[in-house]
Design a protein that fits this description.
single chain, 247 residues, alpha/beta, Nucleotidyltransferase, domain 5, six-stranded mixed β-sheet, five-stranded mixed β-sheet, 8 helices, 15 strands
């Protein structure tokens, strides 16, 4: 089945048509910078431009940087606070005519990894942490998603974890891979003490640098980098539509 997947990020909104049977992009990825401020009207106009780029008229899956319940945005991370309480799917469908399903962006990336990537055919508890501007998380048990976990916000050192161990902190503070890797390790040790995962998947753009910091991670769980890299959010958003249609 072919579905248009869209990944709304803090810096860019990206889309591609996905073959949900293979978990692969079948078109080039098309990217437009995220508008600033990222208000509902501005973001939806950008999503509409991506849909028009592909001359698309079918279902759309949209990974979104927020907790999402029943298509309604509950939080606002890297988007404008005016999104909170908005039924984003209904607004996008009204604007574009395309039936749309919304899912948290890291949940989307996790779905792609669980079905086709590092978590394929793995059971037990899988925890994914995407290190970027913040720390986004996804949690699965026996391949079933526990949606909208916000475990990048757990307390660490008198603040929240993502303000200590996000990749943006590494960049802004010019931390070495060793120093930052040890922070990531602290975070994962805390996660392990709370949920005892069998597999931890490191996502976000920094996953391609896993060899630089992976040796500083010392937890009981198996730790691996994500395999889908920058395409995971797009693929997972499309897969989420497919799974919602087949239930």
């Amino acid at each position: 089945m072919e579905i248009l997947g869209i990944d709304v990020g803090g810096s860019g909104i990206k889309g591609a048509i996905v073959d949900t049977n293979k978990g692969e992009l079948i078109t080039e990825r098309y990217r437009i910078p995220t508008p600033n401020p990222a208000t509902p009207n501005a973001v939806i106009e950008t999503i509409e431009a991506i849909i028009k780029n592909f001359d698309w008229q079918g279902p759309v899956g949209c990974g979104f940087p927020a907790a999402v319940k029943n298509e309604i945005v509950k939080t606002a991370s890297n988007i404008d606070d005016s999104w909170i309480g908005v039924n984003a799917s209904a607004r996008i469908e009204k604007k574009t005519g395309c039936p749309t399903h919304l899912v948290n962006d890291v949940d989307a990336a996790g779905i792609a990894e669980a079905e086709f990537g590092a978590g394929k055919k793995r059971f037990g508890t899988i925890f994914m942490a995407a290190f970027g501007t913040g720390i986004g998380t996804a949690l699965f048990h026996n391949q079933q998603l526990v949606p909208n976990t916000e475990l990048g916000h757990i307390p660490m050192h008198g603040n929240v974890a993502e303000n200590y161990a996000a990749n943006s902190i590494r960049e802004n503070e010019e931390l070495s891979w060793e120093t930052w890797g040890k922070r990531v390790n602290e975070y994962l040790q805390l996660i392990e003490s709370l949920i005892w995962p069998d597999l931890i998947i490191i996502g976000g753009g920094v996953s391609k640098n896993f060899n630089e910091f992976g040796s500083y991670i010392d937890v009981e769980s198996e730790v691996v980098p994500a395999e889908s890299r920058n395409h995971a959010g797009i693929i997972g958003a499309a897969l989420a539509v497919h799974s919602s249609q087949t239930k």
